[in-house]
Design goal:
Blueprint: H1 2-19, H2 21-29, E1 41-42, E2 51-52, H3 55-107, E3 119-124, E4 127-130, H4 136-158, H5 165-186, H6 202-215, H7 217-220, E5 236-237, H8 243-252, H9 267-278, E6 291-292
Antiparallel strand pairs: 1-2, 3-4, 5-6
């Protein structure tokens, strides 16, 4: 195939040269034209300059030069076109070969000229059936899914070397809780209803008052005397007046209408507002509710 292409190109070059013999003849013939024909007049000795060049001579020579340059450019373009065709034929041949190889690997299809080898015996209405192989990529995918299914069943259900989704979820939750506790401990926020204490520094009580004014005044009034909610300054408490109980009530809320604040306040803020409520002096207001609790 390659030899045939090269031969065709050589023939093309020869034909191009034959078609353009006239410019060549003009080019080479101009070298053998007599001086008189070129309008060049030579003087005899002692008659002045030995060569006289007139304006017409210069014009003629310029025209000859332009013709020569044109011929040179023309042959150069022919040569470049032939090189491009040669390179293009090689590229197309390589591309066709690569495409054929890729198609063979991808589909494992039999070439059209060899379909008689895989034609089945039965035929209906001029339609014949070919016994082509399944595409290799499809077969590989099928085998891969079967192997994966077997490994999955053995790993998760037979040998139980891996966790199912629920077990993995529970482990992740335990891990996340540990990370949260570690973070809170580092940030000094590992405070909850089991270890809350009364904060007595004025800056913490001021911060607790600001939180109280923003979240609790609507139900308990500005001094804690109670309105919708119970009086927070007397000795009677629905959920006891211990600092830990107050912390838990503010954090998680109650079924009587007290909303939770854990989603809005961090543990330190919960402890600050709990300490502020714990430190409120008695103010007459709503009637007592709950059981009497004497603060320590």
């Amino acid at each position: 195939m390659k030899n045939q292409n090269k031969k065709n190109m050589v023939n093309t070059i020869v034909q191009k040269i034959k078609m353009n013999r006239l410019p060549l003849l003009v080019l080479f013939g101009s070298f053998f034209i007599g001086n008189e024909a070129l309008a060049l007049k030579f003087n005899e000795a002692n008659e002045g300059p030995w060569l006289l060049v007139e304006n017409s001579d210069l014009v003629f020579m310029a025209i000859i030069n332009l013709i020569l340059v044109g011929v040179l450019i023309y042959f150069k373009s022919i040569f470049n076109n032939l090189l491009k065709k040669f390179a293009q034929s090689n590229t197309e041949e390589k591309s066709a070969k690569a495409t054929g190889t890729f198609s063979k690997i991808l589909t494992d299809a039999v070439p059209i000229e060899e379909e008689d080898k895989i034609t089945l015996d039965h035929e209906y209405d001029g339609i014949r059936e070919l016994d082509n192989n399944l595409p290799p990529w499809w077969v590989a995918l099928l085998v891969g899914t079967m192997i994966f299914a077997v490994v999955y069943v053995l790993h998760y259900h037979v040998f139980r070397t891996g966790d199912l989704q629920m077990a993995e979820y529970n482990k992740e939750m335990v891990k996340a809780d540990a990370e949260v506790k570690e973070y809170l401990s580092k940030m000094s926020m590992n405070v909850d209803e089991t270890n809350a204490t009364v904060m007595t520094e004025q800056k913490d009580l001021d911060a607790g008052k600001a939180i109280y004014d923003a979240n609790c005044v609507m139900c308990h009034k500005d001094k804690g005397q109670g309105d919708i909610g119970p009086n927070l300054t007397d000795e009677f408490w629905l959920y006891t007046g211990d600092i830990k109980a107050i912390f838990k009530t503010i954090k998680t809320g109650t079924s009587n209408g007290m909303p939770e604040h854990a989603s809005k306040l961090n543990p330190i803020q919960l402890q600050q507002v709990s300490s502020y409520v714990y430190s409120l002096p008695y103010t007459a207001g709503k009637e007592p509710q709950g059981e009497k609790y004497v603060k320590e």
